[in-house]
Amino acid sequence: MKIKRQIVVFDAAPDLEAESRFWAGLLDGTVEAEDDWHSLLVDGEWRMGFQLAPNHVAPKWPNGTPQQIHLDIWVDDLPSAHDKAIALGARLLQPAEDPNAAEQFQVYADPAGHPFCLCWALGIMTSRMPELDTVTFHEQDGTAGIPDPW
Questions:
Q1: At 73, is the secondary structure helix, strand, or coil?
Q2: What would the mean pLDDT of 46-57 be, rounded to a whole number?
């Protein structure tokens, strides 16, 4: 079997438009919208999908309704990425323990409540695994997805 495409699909309710618009804005992409499905394209490539899920219950991070998956988005300028995420409708759930650390993350929720992290690691990402500079995926239990580069 050859995998031709792998994307992350988020369930969204009640506002599919707000969810796909948020991620398109954060990742500098465009949305192709159908009634109950939106596709996010970045640089012409399909990166994410959003499906209308009227019974979706947003995770309550960190101790409530569990998350099933979250995105780590590696950035080179946390203040700019933070401002962009907030302007697009994200909520800061947990600030970095030390924003001046060489390696750190902050936890946010998108408009539908899905947690994601803005991460940075000074001088590490491009030298070790450039394919992970944009997005990595982690299952809640850490047993699946693309491993951390450290």
A1: strand
A2: 90
CATH number, domain containing residue 30: 3.10.180.10
**For 65-95, how does the pLDDT look when each residue is reduced to its tens digit (9 = 90+)?**
887 778 889 898 889 999 999 999 999 999 9
138 CB contacts (<8 Å, ≥6 apart)? 69, 70, 72, 145, 146, 148
| Cα 122 to chain centroid, rounded | 20
Domain span at 36: 1-56
Q: What separation in angstroms does the CA of 50 have from each of 18, 80, 93? A: 10, 25, 22
> Do 96 and 119 belong to one domain?
yes
| Percentage of the residues of the chain whose pLDDT score is greater than 90 | 45
Contact 70, 138 (CB under 8 A): yes
In this structure, the answer to whether residues 78 and 117 fall within a common structural domain is yes
